Amino acid sequence: MDDVYGKVEVYPNHFQDTEASVDCFPTRTRTDYSSRSRRHLQAVLKVMGAASILNLFSLPRLPWTSNSDEDDKVELTRAEVEALRSEIIDGEERESHLKAQLEHLDEILKSAQLSGYLYIRTRWTELPGEPPILDDVDVDDWLPRFVVLNGSCIYYYLKSTDLSPQDSTLLSDVVEIGSLPSFTHEDGTQRYAFYILTCHGLRFECSSLSIVQVDSWLATLTNKTHSVKQHRSIES
């Protein structure tokens, strides 16, 4: 026995087959698989619900990238193109008109001796042999006009931006200039006035809220008409 095994002691009955312990490899029952499937199904439903909510907030036909040539194309009908062309032409015409108005106003302000807004109304003086002219004092016919004294002429514009005056008066036709009594307008404002009488019997009555403006017009017109008459008398 010792010759076969030498000094190695062998215990034949030490290694014995043991049954696998039940606790080492636990088995999964059908209940465990059902619970796992249920949890998986709930997770899938949650993901699907979240996706449906995101779809509500998503905007249709919006490109996620900016390099899509198809999404940048806009198709217009012939009528729409013609309408756009007409609007562009109208805009250019309005721009040209406004530019001309500004240039005209700038030229007036540079060359005029006097300019500004005044309230104007016209009256006719009866000529010898004519019946008296009825003046309806109840009618408010004071109209704002942009008045310009330029050279030897007075121009009356509806607005300062108008290219052409509504009326004009030559200083050589003016025979009398004088002040008018101040009055209270129906809107409650105090107005100061003066008049310009022509040789044709036409009388321009002018008023303003500023007495300084009225005095300035009176002084300037008086000096201008006096110089024009002197110049005309010298020529004659």
TrEMBL record:
It comes from Asparagus officinalis (Garden asparagus). Residues 67-94 form a coiled coil. The keyword Coiled coil applies. CDD domains: PH. This is PH domain-containing protein. InterPro entries: PH-like_dom_sf (IPR011993), PH_domain (IPR001849). Residues 111-226 form the PH domain. Keywords: Coiled coil. It comes from the Eukaryota.
